[in-house]
Amino acid sequence: GVWVVGNARSNGSFSATVQLLAATADIVGACAYAPNYPPVAEYAAVNKIKFTGTPEYDIVLKHSNGTTDTLQSGKTFLVPDGYTLQSFSDNTGAPGIIKCIPMTGNINFASAPPTILKGQPATFTVNAMPTVPAASEITYSWSAPDFNPATHTGGTFNTTAPAEHAVYGVTLTARRVVYCDLTVTNSVTVANCITPATFTLLASAASFCAGAGVMFALSGTESGVQYQLYKGAQAVGEELPGTGGAATFSGTYAEGHYTAAAVGAGTHCAVSMSGAHTIVAYPAFTAGEIATASTATPAWATPGITVESITPATGGSGSVTYQWQCTGTGTATLIGDAATYTINDYDYAAGTYYINRYAKDATCDTDWVAASGTYTLVVEMTGVNQPQGSCTFTQPPVVGTFANFDPGYSASTFVTLTDERDGNNYTVVKIGGRWIMGQNLNYRKGLTYFATRATPSTSTGSVPALRGGFWCPSNSSGTVPVSVCDYWGAQYAWETAMMLDGVGTWTETSGSGYCTGAANTTACKQNFGRAAGSGTATGGRGICPQNWHVPTDFEWGVLLDAMESSSNSTAHQNASGAGWYGSNAGTRGKATCSGNSSDTNPSWDSGAGTDIYHFRIIPTDDRNGDGSAGADRGAHSYLWSSSAYSTSSAWYRHYLSGNANVFRNGSYTRSLGVSIRCLRDE
User: Fold this and answer.
1) Which residues are within 8 A (CB) of 526 and not within 5 positions of it... i.e. 6 or more apart?
2) Coil, strand or helix at 547
3) pLDDT (tens digit, 9 = 90+) per residue, 475-492?
4) Which of 5, 312, 411, 475 is the most exposed place for a label (fewest CB within 10 A)?
C-alpha cells in the first residue's frame, strides 16, 4: 500500500509522490515546493516518523487503502513495515521536508588478492556492515569507473583491474528504504608486481679457516618466492625456494662480500634482502720450525742455551700460543711458552733430552701442533763444582722417595727426593760419598705449631711439653705464619728431633736418654729416637724419613771436611771442644742469595756463600724455648747433630754471615728451636 500525506484543515492535497532514498541530503517534494518551509517530518527511529512543525499544524497520513491518521506536532507515528511514505502537505497545501533515518555503524570492504596487479582479476568483498538495520535488509551497490565491469550490486564485486599501475577509487554504498545511504570510497593501488617481504641474510661466521667455508641463511622466507645469494654482483649457488619460514642456502662459500635478494619472477617483484657480509678466509695454520742442533752442557750448570726459532707459527687467525715440551726424563714436561726457549740453570740432570715446540691458533687449529725440528740437549755429569745461582732455583727431577733411594745412585750428585710421609720434596746432594739434604727439614705432620709457646720443663726424665712441636724461623717474637716454614724449613727442639720414631710416636729407653762416650753403642742407638754420642757411630733416625737419620757430631765433621778446598782436611772431624774449624767449608756451603731476608725471602743479609755443592745453608737463626725469636735471622744458621753433650744440651754446627769457617759447640740448650738436615744411612 501507499501512505498519502494530506492537509487536515484544507480541501486541497499534494498529490506528487515523494519516495524516500537512503541519502544524507534532505528529500523534498517532487516539485520542490516551499523548500524553506519550517515544518519537518523526520525519522527518529526505525520505521517511525515524527512531526516537528508549528504546534497549530498537524499532518494527515493516508494509506492508499483509505486508512488515515493525523500526526500532530510533537507526536510520533509508527510506519508499518512494507509501506512507503509517499507525500505530505500542511494546511496550506505546501509540501514539508522529509529526512531519512541514519544507519548505525560503518561499512568497509577488502580486496583480494591483497596486492592487485594490473590487468588481473580482483575481488572486493564487504567486510564491515551497519548494525542497524539488519544485514539481511541492506542492499549494496559498487562503483569502480576504471575497472571492468565498473558497477555491481551485491556484497561481492568480481572485476578486472585496469591495465596501468596507478591508484584508483572504488565506492561501496549500503541502502535500505527509510534509511539514509551509507557510502565509503577507498583508494586501491593497482601494482605492477607483488613485493615480497624483506628478511635478513645471516652468516654462520665472519671468517673461516682453511679447508672450511661459511654457510648463509635467511631469517624468513615467503612461500612461492625464489631467493638468490650474490657474491658481489654475481649470483652464486642455487636459488632457494621460500618455505614460509627461515631457510638455508645450500653449500658453503669462500671469502668475499655477500648479499641476497628475492628473485623477480612471475607476479613477484625483485627485492633486496637486508644484511650484507664480508667474509674473511684465514690461511692454513703451520706451527713453524725450530733449530735441530745438539748441544752438550754440564749438569746443573747455567748454560744459557737458546733453542732458536727458525720460523714462527703462521696462518690461522694470527692469535698464536706456544708451548715447549721436554722428553728424556720420563713424562713430557712443559718448559716454556714463547717462540724461543732459553735453557736456564738447574733444569736438567745428566742425560739426553729432546725439546720440541708446539703451537696452536685461537680460532683455527685449537689443538697443539708440533713444529718441525727437534732440539737435542746432551747433559753431561762433569762434577758438582757449579754455583747455585740463586736461592729460588728450580729443583732437579724427582728420582724417588727417601725410603727407596739407592745410596749408590750415580746418574747425578744433585737430585730431588720425596718424603713419603707428607709428600714434601727436598733436594739431596752427595758430599764426601754421603747423601744429605740440601734443604732444611720441614716435617710437620702430626706436630703442634709453637707460634709463641712458652717453655715447660725440659727434663729428659719425663716427656717434655716441647716434644711433638715445631717453630718457624723469624725475627719476631709475635705470632709467625706457619707458611714461613715453607721458605725456611721448620725448627725443632732437640728432644723433638731425637725422640720421635719418624712417624710421630714417642719412644724412649731406660736411662738418661742420651748416649755419650763409651755408651755410644749399637744398643744405645737401635731404637728410633735414641741419640748418639760424639763418636763415629751413625746417629738416630729421630724425625728423619726411613733410612735417613740426624747426623752425629762426627758425621758433620766428615761432611764439612769433604767441603773444604783442601782435599785432605780433617779439621772438622778431629775437632776437640767448641770453636771455629776449617778454612772455607762455611763459604762453600752457604747459599749464594744475599739481601734483606724476609718471611718469604731466605737470604743472607751479607757475606753469602758460593754454594758449590748445592748445600744451600740459609740463615735461620734459632727459636728460644719460650717462643721468642732470635734477632739475627739473616746472619746465623744453626743445625742440630744427634749427639748429646749433656742432659740439657747437644752438639750443633753454626754458620755465620761473613765467616768462611764453621763453628762447633756442645752447650746449646736442647729446648732451642734449631734446623735439621737428614743424612742417608750407610
Assistant:
1) none
2) coil
3) 766 677 877 888 889 999
4) 411
End-to-end Cα distance, the chain: 144
Confidence at residue 13, expressed as pLDDT on a 0 to 100 scale: 30
Residues in the chain, total: 682
Q: Which amino acid is at 345?
A: D
R_g over Cα of the chain:
57
The DSSP H or E segment spanning 124 is strand 121-128
Question: How far is 30 from 382, CA to CA, in rounded Å?
Answer: 138
Residue among 271, 273, 270 nearest 260 (CA): 273
C-alpha cell at position 170:
572504488
Distance, in Å, from the CA atom of 130 to the CA atom of 128, rounded to the nearest integer, reads 7
pTM of the model: 0.43
Q: Residue 159, CB half-sphere, CA atoms under 13 Å: how many?
A: 25
Q: In one letter, which amino acid is 263? A: V
Candidate from 38-52, 402-416, 625-639 with smallest mean pLDDT: 38-52
Mapped onto helix, strand or coil, the DSSP state of residue 488 is helix
Consecutive H or E run containing 524: helix 522-525
3-state class (DSSP) for residue 158: strand
Three-state secondary structure readout of 408-471: CCCCCCEEEEECCCCCCEEEEEEECCEEEECCCCCCCCCCEECCCCCCCCCCCCCCCCCCCEEE
**What mean pLDDT comes out for the span 569-588?**
93
The candidate with the shortest Cα–Cα distance to 200, out of 223, 227, 224, 225, is 227
What pLDDT was estimated at residue 328?
Answer: 74
How many angstroms separate the CA atoms of 642 and 639, rounded?
A: 10
Dihedral through CA 531, CA 532, CA 534, CA 535, nearest 10? Answer: 180
CB-based burial, 146-157: b 16+ in 10 Å, e otherwise: bbeeeebeebeb
Segments of 232-350 assigned E as strands: 234-241, 247-248, 256-262, 271-272, 277-281, 289-290, 294-298, 305-307, 309-311, 320-327, 333-336, 341-343
Instruction: Give pLDDT tens digits for 337-385.
Output: 888 887 654 345 556 788 899 999 998 888 999 999 998 877 654 333 2
Looking at per-residue confidence, does 148 or 295 come out higher? 148
